Amino acid sequence: MNILHINSTQSYGGAEMIMRTLMEKSRDRGHHTSCLVGRAHGAVDTTTSLFEHDRRRAGWTRFCYRLANMLWKWIGFHKHGRGVCRFIRSVLGEPLRTFRIQIGQEDFDFPDSVGAVERLEPKPDLLHFHGLHSSYFDLGALQQLSAQWPVVITMHDAWLVTGHCAYPGGCARYEIGCGNCPDIERFPKLKRDGTRFNFERKKKIYENSRIHVVTPSQWLMDIVQASDMSRSFSKLEVIHNGVDTKRFCPGERRVQRRELGMQDYDVVILYNARNATTAVYKDFATARESVEQYAQVHQDQRVLLQVLGEERDEEILENLTVRFELLEGGSNRLGAYYQAVDIFVHTSKCENFPTVILEAMASGCPVVSSDTGGMREQIRALEMESVAQKPGVTYFKQDQATGCLVSQEHIRETFEAINILMGDHHLRERVGENARQWVEECLSSDKMVDTYCQLYETLNADSR
Q1: Phi/psi zone of residue 11: left (φ > 0), alpha (ψ -120 to 50 degrees), beta?
Q2: pLDDT tens for residues 226-241?
């Protein structure tokens, strides 16, 4: 089969990593794969194509784009220059599109959404969409595309079934069609509350399309099924994300610490997130304060908090050092970091089925994670006397546990989990071994790809 993956970009975060894994391992199974993206991030190989939306826009719009770009070179540095260029590009060049955005409608004005697929050679047999927001695709094109090809959409967040947000948090208005949105600033943010219109427009698009929706977690599937849109999809299915257990595997901790310059520390804790300290949903503050609390209690230990995903100056606070590094996508150093550290901490407020947790567990690294999204499907939570048990979570003794689940934004619980794991070397080693075994059995990329390939073949056969 010829499978085309469609996404906002080809290499950036966890969703892109899942897409690349599917592409590479599907080829190993005899399929031809390629991707079509809205914008390139880093190097682009021969399997990647780009949408050409700007070239397909009306002549007047293209003229205004060129004029704005030309003026930018002359007045872009001026304090009013940027505003002038934006005005020419948007208000003059695309007045109707600009008006729609101003009244809170989601932007679907991307004219190459169908043509880019139709121009590809060889023609695809199946389309697999990943993120559909991030300003690169006309959602209405699903009606035409799904009439020509089988369509799979993997939801890496909840945007597909809400009036605008990727993560609803505690809001359940998607169950009744949105409207009166309590937070239009949530990503992707709106200018005004157009969530009721957006919801109804999406629902109508899905009703006139044939779409097979996959979620990586049962948590996200529960959101889909609770939404008023759920009946508009042809089929719903849960396929857990998986991780490459050859790339991410246990290693010699002492050797890796020496290679990474960590040999002088007694305790090394890892935090890994894109835009680590500034991403609102990732909640780096809870992780940092928990580690600071641990360092204050254990003054006799030299503690390192290694932060990946952002470049900043190193910070030294008594016996605690905080280091930062911005790793390039696909860097081999990432696997070495997981092998070198004692614990991986992930304190996100909103998540689906984060790849970083799978990477850590595959590397034999115990995880301390907030209990949100699909994390309780990834982690077999250690029963801890000092941390209150959470409703709906199944707890395990140390011979089966793969990590610790703590309450969101709860510094004390996060500290307690770190303290328990660091206070018992044998417990920490056993939890890491359990994590590796759990991933190999249930959450490997091979298992994920095999399941997707079966789905592709079924949909392709049904479309004939």
Answers
A1: beta
A2: 998 988 998 999 999 9
